[in-house]
C-alpha cells in the first residue's frame, strides 16, 4: 500500500498566490523525482474545535488560512529515496530560506503515514 507524507501550515491570505507558485514548483520537483501524487489544499470548511482542530494546531491568525498538503509514494523506502533526491535539488533549496517563505514555518507540522485502508 501507498505511503503518505502530510503537512499542515498557516498561510497569510495575502500570500496565497506566492504560496501557490512555490507549491506548484515544489509539486513539479517531487513528481520529477518519483512521487505518485502531490496535493496542496486550502481550507474551505474548517472550524475551530473545543479541544483540537486544524486552526488550533497551527495557531491560526485572523488573516490566515490553513493549508493541508500531502504527497503519495509507493512505500516508505520509496519516500526516502524520492525525498533524498528532492532535498538535493537546487530548485527546492532556493525556496527554503525561512526569511522569504510566504508562511510561518515554525507553525507548520508534518509526518509520514502508512496506509491503513485503501478503498
From TrEMBL:
Annotated InterPro entries: Dimeric_a/b-barrel, DUF1428
Pfam families in the cross-refs: DUF1428 (PF07237)
UniProt xrefs under SUPFAM superfamilies: Dimeric alpha+beta barrel
Protein name: DUF1428 domain-containing protein
Amino acid at each position: 500500500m501507498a505511503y503518505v507524507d502530510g503537512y499542515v501550515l498557516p498561510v497569510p491570505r495575502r500570500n496565497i498566490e506566492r504560496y501557490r507558485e512555490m507549491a506548484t514548483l515544489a509539486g513539479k520537483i517531487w513528481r520529477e523525482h518519483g512521487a505518485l501524487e502531490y496535493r496542496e489544499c486550502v481550507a474551505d470548511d474548517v472550524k475551530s474545535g473545543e479541544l483540537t482542530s486544524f486552526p488550533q494546531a497551527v495557531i491560526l491568525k485572523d488573516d490566515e488560512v490553513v493549508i493541508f498538503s500531502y504527497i503519495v509514494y509507493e512505500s516508505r523506502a520509496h519516500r526516502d529515496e524520492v525525498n533524498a533526491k528532492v532535498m538535493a535539488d537546487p530548485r527546492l533549496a532556493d525556496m527554503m530560506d525561512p526569511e522569504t517563505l510566504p508562511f510561518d514555518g515554525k507553525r507548520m507540522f508534518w509526518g509520514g503515514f502508512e496506509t491503513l485502508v485503501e478503498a
